[in-house]
Structure formats: structure tokens, C-alpha cells
Amino acid sequence: MSSQPLPRKPTIWETLTNEKNFKWTLLIPLLLLLAIFMLYPLLYSFYFSFHDWGMQGAPTFSGLNNFRQLVNDRGFLLAFGRTLEVLVICIAVEILLGLALAMMWNREFPGQNVVRGLALLPLLVAPLILSLLWNFMMDFDFGMFNQILQAVGLRKVYWWAPKMALYTICAITIWQWLPFSVFVLLAGLKGLPKDVFEAAKVDGARGWYTFRRLTLPMLTPLIMIIIVLRSMWLIRLFDPLFGTTRGGVNTELLDWITYRTAFVMFDIGYGSAMAIVSWAFTMILCMLMFRQLMKALKPKE
Amino acid sequence: MIKKILFWLVTLLVLFIVIVPLLWIYLTAFKSQTDIFSTNLRSMVIFKPTLQNFRALFGDYPFWPNLLNTAIVSVLGTVVTMAVSLLAAYSFARWNTGGGDLLFMTVSTRMFPMAVAAIPHFIFFKILGLLDTHFGLMLLYVFFNMSFATFLLYGFFNEVPKEVEQAAMIDGYGRMEIFRKIVFPLIKPGLAVTSVFCLIWMWNEFFFAFLFTRSQARTVNVLISSFWGGLQVQYGLMAGGAAITIMPTLLAAWFMQRYIIRGLTFGAVKG
What we know:
The complex is a heterodimer.
Chain A: H1 12-17, H2 22-25, H3 28-48, E1 51-52, E2 60-61, H4 65-71, H5 74-105, H6 112-124, H7 127-137, H8 144-152, H9 165-191, H10 194-202, H11 207-235, H12 239-242, H13 254-264, H14 268-297
Chain B: H1 2-29, H2 33-36, H3 52-60, H4 63-95, H5 101-107, H6 114-128, H7 134-158, H8 162-170, H9 175-186, H10 188-204, H11 207-212, H12 220-225, H13 235-245, H14 247-263
Helix pairs in contact in B: 1-13, 3-13, 4-7, 4-10, 7-10, 8-9, 10-14
């Protein structure tokens, strides 16, 4: 390193792109957006969760009242429970079916691009359009499903019955999101090192054994990523309800009750408290998983 | 042999389940109101096709302007998101900036209930005059998509070996040059997948468009949802609108499937 004979003041651009600062410079736009769009609503909701406010007049401080009310709110607790139910059902089905289909399609076969292209479709169609469509197809009288059932001689199913509707919501969510698991796992399978599997084959390892001892451990970080991302998105499930039950017939989920409280009933204080609680729950859940994920990703560096 | 039959049986079953709802959109789009509500099984597929739904869409409703709004917002939004996320993801992947916590923060932006986040945004936008503007909606979309985009790109950057960059550094390249000339070309496929994901999700977004746009910047999904009226649902118009709106999506699916299975591993699988 030869030093400059005359040290001059570095320009702003040089300061921003020197070894020490460059990594932070790259983050400036992201951090700016985070501050405006994340920190601000968060602080705002935090503030109002301790107040009573109906969008008119001045907010009055109410201490922990909103949270106290929340703990005893049957509707909220039910929504919370339902959200967890949807979370478990959808993730379990998506991972298991996704793994099965990915294993199945992880080979060369005629028409593979067509098959895969079509299989990806549900993921890309607007959830709102789909929810309107499912509502139409699953109508009791003139819906396509029931007409076919009737034609085959079976009983019509009341898809949106109070006992059934939540599972119908699960089904349409899985229909839309299964391709995500399938394709991520398919990409993972394609990326696995081939030599290890050939060695296992030479050693006479059977299919199931290879799957359990080689494939599954190597896919674990990927499965964890799917679980983290899907949990995050499923807790915030909203669109499938919009065109179908609108939170009725025992399908009110966490985000819908929050939306209803804050946006339809204009109870900003109570809605904010709901938001804070469900946000904290999501954060803690995902943070635990994310830690594990980062650990799983690290040693391979 | 049995294995092969089973393979195709399952594959065809899956495809059938995938295609039927989408086919239903296109069938309904060409049906008249009477055919739509007919309970005769035969008329489900055999009916007299009509263009009346499309004619109404183009004539009586601002379908094209709204579709254009969707296109403007999602294309611009994708460009901006990619610019923001590309830089950030590079920083996270190369220097582990913030020790994983900052990356988690970024990913966690999707964890706050949108319905409540929308209220402060609404007030904020009202003050700045951003309600019902393309720019305002675009900003929101950038924010909501940058978390996933950054996380995806982070995975792609992780797959670029550090040694390549170190070698370039020894050759006297500057930071910017390394990024532009060496790293960027290597993650182009990742860039393609990520931008199409953003594009599609912005194209499909409904909730914020529904709350933040009224007429000037109203997106096509908001128009479609308006056919779901209180008294009656205009399924024909809804299906007609959906049939056109999802077309770019169908094209994207064809394009994406190759890229996804070749690269979407979040950097979690190392060969």
C-alpha cells in the first residue's frame, strides 16, 4: 500500500463505497423503506393499543384495558385457535404432498415442461379471483361440484356449512400453495450432489433407506424454509375469505377479525391491540424457526 | 410398468385438479347469464358461446384503463423492488450485515397484520396526497415485496463462491466493478425468477389496491371484486375480467417453471 503524498478529503461517493461502509451503503434504500413502512405503523399501533379511539375525537388513554378485554374475548380466541388449525393442516399437507410430488417428478419424462408449467399455475393466479371462483363453483345449488356429485348419484355437499367451511378454506389454500412446496423441493432435489447417491447405490442402499438417511437430511433446511415462509403467510391469511365466507360460518381467522375490528367497526384501539398481539405471536414463532434455519444454513458455508 | 401407469395416473389427476377451476373461468366467461345459473349438467360444457360479457366489460366498465393501472404499478414496482433488494441481498449475503437479525427484520415485514398497518399508511398517504395514485400504491407494493425478494436473492448470492470475488479483487477490481461485472451476470437467472415472482404478486394484489385506490389508479382486481355486489353476483363479468387478467400469469408459469427448478433453493442445498 503506497500512501498518497497529499491526503485529500474523500468525496461522498468514496466514503460510501469504501471497504468499511460499502455494506451499509447497499442497505440504505431498504432501511429507509423499513423505517417508513414498518417502524411507523408499528409504533402507531403500539400507541393506540393503549388507547380508546373510534377515529373521531381525541384518543383516551386506557392503559391495559384493550389487552385485558382481548384475553377474555371469545371471538378473538376462537379466531386464534382456527388460525393455528389452518396453519397445522395446510403446512402438514403441503410438505407431505409436496415432497411426494417432487420426488415423483424429479426425473426426465415426456412432456415434463408442460406438466410442470401447468402444475405451477395455481401459485400464480390472483387469490382474490380464485376465492370468488371457488365460492361460485362450490355453491350449494348451481355450483359445479355439487352438480357433478348429483349427476354421479351422490349427495350434494354443503361446502360452506359451519362445520365444513374452515376445511374448505384449507383445501383452497392448499390448492393454491402446494406448487410452492413442490417446486422448491424439486429445485432442492435437482441441486443435491449426485456422487453421494451413486455411492449409496453401489453400497446397495435401498430406496427407503437412501431417502431417510440421505435425501431427507439434505432437504431439511429447505423444508424449514418452507415452514417459516408458509407460517408467516398463513397467519396472515385473508384473501381466500374475502370472496367466500367473509369471516362467517366459523371461519373468522386472525387477520379477518382484526380487519373487522379496525376497519369495519372503526375500533382502532382494540384493533391495534389485536394486531400487536398477533404480530408478537408471529414474530416469536418465526424467530425461533429462523434461528434454527440460520444454524442449518451456516455450516455449509 | 405398473410404476409407470401409476406415475401417469397421479400426474394426470393432479393436472386435472389444477386445470378444472381455471378452465371454469374461461367457460363461464363465454356463457350467458341463463347458462351460468343453469342446473342442467349438459349445459355446463355445451352451451351457445356469447361475447356479451366481454362487450359489457369493455363498453360499460373501465376495464382497459384499470388493467393498464395494474400493469403500470406492477412493472414499476418490480423494477424498484429489484433495485432495493438486489443491493440489500448482496450486502446480507457477502458481509452478513447485521448478523442475521437485520435479515430477519426484513423478512418479518410480512408478519404485521395488513389491515392494521393500512390505517397509519392511509393517514400518512392522505397528508402527502398519495391516495389513489400509481406512485403511492407502487410504494406499498415495493415495501411488501422487498422482504421476499431480498430473501430469495440472498439465497442466490450465497451460491456465488466468495473466491471468485476475491480473485477479482486481487486483479484490482473495485467493489462496484466486481458487483457489476462479476456477481451480477452470475445471478441473472435468480434475478429473473425473483422479478417474475414480484411482478405476479403485484399484479395479483388486492387488499391494498382495494383500500388505497378509488378511480384514477384503481386496479383491475378491484374492478373484478366490484362485480361481487350485495344483491347479486355478476359471475359472467367476473369470469370475463378474470379470463383476461390471468393471461399474463399463464405465460409467466410457462417461463418460470424451468428457472425455478433449476435455481430456487434459497442457497440451502449445496451440491
